[in-house]
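Observation: inputs received (chain + pyridoxal-5'-phosphate).
Thought: call the complex predictor directly.
Action: predict_structure
Action Input:
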Amino acid sequence: MDEQLSAARKDMEQYASYAEQIAEKNLVKILEAFRTENVSTQHFCSTTGYGYNDMGRDKLEQLYARIFGTEAALVRQQIVSGSHAISLALFGNLLPGDELLLLGMPYDTLQTVIGIGREVPCSLSEYGVSYRVHELDFANPDLAAIKAALHPQTKLVSIQRSRGYSSRMSLSVVKIAAIIDAIKSVRPDIIVFVDNCYGEMVEELEPSQCGADLMAGSLIKNPGAGIAPGGGYIVGKEEYVERAACRLTVPGAGRELGSSLIDNRLFYQALLLMPQVVLESVLGAVFTASLAARLGFAVSPAADEIRADIIQTIAMENSARLQAFVQGIQKYSPIDSFVTPEPWPMPGYDNDIIMASGSFISGSSIELSADAPLREPYLVFMQGGLSRYHVIYAVSRTFADMQEQGLL
Ligand SMILES: *Cc1c(COP(=O)(O)O)cnc(C)c1O
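Observation:
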């Protein structure tokens, strides 16, 4: 395997020269925002109770708005996950009778939020919001077909940047911008929402800087940089963000409520580290793509493909290989390396899921992690890595173990 390993390192180095430029530009953008906002250690303190006039929380939100180029932001410890952030954005901005148009089937946990496929208590569908899934060719979105898919009752169009647990491609910001322009050219009143999970800082611009009205993500993914202990964010137009905040807290109070129970330093520091950590993850993924392809696996994206998110998929072809790979990632993680992950029926997902997450923050997927629903073609979704060298270590040893077990 030595030959393949050194070739994979070379492929990674080749991509690094491109990805490092993006990381540097994004870091400069973030540093400028810190300077403009006059961030100070006084913003790190924690608060209790209602959280009225929580300076650290408000400043953090101003900082997010500046970095993502939006009017407003909601960045909260009380948002429990990415799906929660997205759910708040949708529930806050869709009313009974409105239609939600989804470009492609959304991420598994959002299907229950929307009520796709089955009836779930408290879903948008139960509440009287209808939905339609418009299938998209993610490689080459048909803009005319998207325009034609807009109905008079369509209130919000949802675009998912990353692939999630599917074999579709991620959408580059350029493609997202073209879709937004097409929608706005015929219906400027429609709210364009982007699920930005796993996409933050992979490219130079964010979808919110290219016309998206509302966007959401998780703080145990990219913007948490492996150190934020939890939370989620929503950025976008003032009115839409405030409506989402009214779903999180109460109508009337919105963003004014919600104390910083945990001090805010980690959330600020995570922002500064995000471009670097995303770079490490991306390069780890490029290494993995190259090595896996050289060992005969179908991978997406390919090692030399320009990336729009941090996810790497490898087609493991059967359940035994898939489980061995995920178990290997766990074995070579810093935390719980002695644990053997098994498939289980995780709430919100239709298939059994096997997950490796030997992370400091529970469930964090900006730290090296691998997940897979047990379904054809046994794709494993690998993402994260605070250091590219951890990814190289874990992936190369996992494949070596698999070779020893006769699984390659
Ligand atoms: C991770 C992810 C989410 C949110 O998942 P949570 O586990 O709830 O944070 C939503 N959409 C996509 C595309 C994702 O990758």
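Thought: report the result.
Final Answer: Residues 81-83, 86, 107, 109, 160, 162, 164, 195, 197-198, 218 surround pyridoxal-5'-phosphate (CB under 6 Å). The longest strand covers residues 154-160.
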